[in-house]
Amino acid sequence: MKKYVRSAARSLSVSQWVNIVILLVTAILYAVAWPTLHVTHEVPAPVQPIVGALAAWPFILIRANPALGWAISAVAALVIPRVFEHVPGSDYHYPWQVVHIIVIMCLLAAVALRAAVPIVAVAWASTVLLFFADTPGEDGRGWAVGLTALVAFCLLIRWLVLSRRQLARKEEENELERARRTILEERTRIARDLHDVVAHHMSMVVVQAQSAPYRIPDVSDEVRAEFESIGASGRAALNEIRGMLGVLRSDGQLAEHAPQPGLGQVDELFEATRRAGIPLQVSVTGDPVGLSEATGLVVYRILQESLANAARHAPGAQIVVDVSYTDPVSVIVANGPSPSSHPPAHPESAGGHGIVGMRERARAVGALFSAGPDGKGGFMVRAEFPGLSA
Fold first, then answer.
1. Are 305 and 353 in contact (CB under 8 A)?
2. In the chain, N or C: fewer CB atoms in 10 Å?
3. How far apart are CA 224 and CA 151, in angstroms?
4. Distance of CA 325 to CAs 287, 358, 386, Å?
5. CATH topology of domain 263-339+351-390
6. Which residues form a coiled coil (predicted)?
7. How far apart are CA 269 and CA 333, in angstroms?
8. Which ranges in the chain are annotated with CATH 3.30.565.10?
9. Tell me: the pLDDT tens digits for 263-283?
10. What is the secondary structure of 45-68 as a DSSP string?
11. Nearest by Cα to 153 from 120, 111, 109
12. What is the pLDDT of residues 224-241, one digit of tens each?
């Protein structure tokens, strides 16, 4: 039993413990107010539990709704002395029980700590007038000063806590800003390194491809066309790298705000593949009108990566592309085995991330993606976008 109680106690949160304490204090106050009511006021016995409850029970709202609790307690303090006579000959001269005074002061303090400033002003003024009017002799002025000091002290605590919270929030915002600047600086460093490592070498490839026909004598037309294709592919890759570097260098710019290829560049992608000497068969059905830019970008990237993988891992193999813009939109890229006259293929599992990247892009727009051997010595990539209609 003790273990069960300890386990239940440990499972309670701080908020739950506070609620339990409020309930216990309310019960204690009521247990004092009811039995002692006959000492201060002439109240019929059947009504004593109700009057005692009006004195003690508003305390239970001190956390949930202190303004409502104060209003109930203040109305009760206004009505009780005017309905029930004070016990004649008693040494206690206040018009309310001690419990009632404690409760209304606690609720006034809670209102000053938590309620809106206009409500605080109304509660303070009403309580001061109530005590000033009903307390005997010169005690009213003393209560007015004491209640004013109580409200002022609670407001001071409230403003100090609020200032600390605002300071903590500002420090958190500054910390987030410092972290954001650190990330931006790291992105800038990565962009600079990428530029130095990749863009420089890509530029050299483009320059060498363009100048090769002039540096090498007796270049045939086929070789010249091949060099031009290499230069065009290099320039396209260099433009994409510069676009990505611009995103990395931008201050908070999102990647989707940068210029990105889409369905309008798919034909150029096919043409560049053919210029590279890759046997390519393309079938396109349907109209891409109505597809979102995000879907168009994914279609382009899947085609781009699939064609690059096929050319790299199965050189010389026939590549068949089937793009359907009907519902569902689908993309299929299949290649046969590499001819014996070409070097053997190197599988994607050798360390590349192309298939992983295609799968992640497809998943981002809710597409179904599959990639693997076709059982005939070739390889097939398939992406299907259900729920999209042209």
1. no
2. N
3. 91
4. 6, 19, 11
5. Heat Shock Protein 90 (3.30.565)
6. 162-189
7. 13
8. 263-339+351-390
9. 888 888 888 888 777 888 999
10. GGGHHHHHHHHHGGGGGTTT-HHH
11. 109
12. 888 888 877 777 777 777
In the structure encoding, which two tokens stand for residue 73, read together? 């307690």
Neighbours of 45 (CB within 10 A): 8
Tens digit of each residue's pLDDT (9 = 90 or more) over 186-211: 877 776 666 656 765 676 677 777 77
Six token digits for residue 385: 């976008």
Q: Is 311 helix (H, G, I), strand (E, B) or coil?
A: helix
Kind plus residue range of the DSSP H or E element containing 33: helix 14-40
Residue 389 has pLDDT above 70, yes or no: no
Is 210 buried (19+), middle (13-18) or exposed (0-12) by CB count in 10 A? middle
Q: What is the pLDDT of residue 181?
A: 85
The HSE-up count of residue 302 (CA atoms within 13 Å, CB side) is 34
Token pair of 55 as six digits: 């004195």
Give the whole-angstrom CA distance, residue 116 versus residue 88.
42
Q: Residues 26, 29, 35, 40: what is their CA dihedral angle, to the nearest 10 degrees?
A: -130
> Tens digits of per-residue pLDDT, 54-113?
999 999 999 999 999 999 999 999 998 888 887 877 777 788 899 999 999 999 999 999
Identity of the residue numbered 257 = H
3-state SS, residue 137: coil
